[in-house]
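Posting here for the record, re: phosphoric acid mono(formamide)ester.
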Amino acid sequence: MKSTKLNEVSWSDFSELTPIDKAEYLSTDNKIFHMLLAQQFNRKQLDEFGELATRIRKIAKTKEGILFLRSQLAHKRAMLYFTQPSTRTFLSFTAACQILGFQIGEVRNKSTSSEFKGETQEDSIRSFSSYFDIIIMRSEIGGLAERMAWALSNSERPIPIINAGSGKDQHPTQALLDIYTLQRSFEKSGGIDGKHIVFVGDLARGRTVRSLSMLLTNYQDIKITFVAPNQLQATPDILELLACKNVSYDLSNNLRSIIPQADAIYMTRIQDEWDTTSGESAKIDTSNFCIGTKELALMKSTAVIMHPLPRRNEISTDVDSDPRAVYWRQMRNGMWIRAALIASIFNCDKDIKNY
Ligand code: CP
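Prediction output follows.
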């Protein structure tokens, strides 16, 4: 596996590039090596990753297929470095690595690693690269995965890094699994092009909304509506990006009026872990930004409800049994698409397609 051109640029020059310009340094031979930013994906790759994920999903239906997949990367080891809480991302990456045969190591809490003794994250990552062949990391620090990818690419062990969520800014593999869920949901109704996607909830601090909005700019005639209380509305950086890409969007604080128009409703929880003053989120009235059986009655029969999860009370459990509620399938899709991404990084995508 060849590394990237990241060793040809200083950190200060790289860090000042736009995400689009950074993407060029994160791939090799037009293949993603470090997966850090939603801006790295183009439409062709999104289609190919979706097809590969479906291929893996189908191959894994038989014991013979499972053993074939497991043989692909049984000689490799993966490190999961998650210093921010996670259920789905951690476990779906674990399962994706297991599907492909990896041996796995993990650090989930700085208090159990030598960071507790004052070791820098940069030194921690370099230590992991001595033992493992890929690092999958989640951090509360925005941009840390980029800094670590640059550091590794300038070390003697330039192994790939996958960003499994960084600060408030990016969660690119969540966006990838969201796109896969939309592809599957609309595969018999013309695909994602032309659809109206409605984001609801804490849009100011939700990194999944930011990353998925970026990926949606790859589709034609998309319309996006951001529905949130004023204090939690989508931020100018997302809106400017959409305007720049000629994606039609509007803002609303009236969920019930928007529901009948939606093809996909993407719910999110209040992200109060980012509160800067104690109890600040609790003062915001979010009661009109929830989905229950009354809201279900307003939805198109073909529409879907998504959620990156975890949820709180923004989707009533009464909704779970409705066929339009696809958030549990969305979560499982994460395992298949993450397996597809890792298979592609390690160049076993062709063998899997040809199986
Ligand atoms: N969607 C998501 O990132 O979930 P976790 O925080 O549980 O990983």
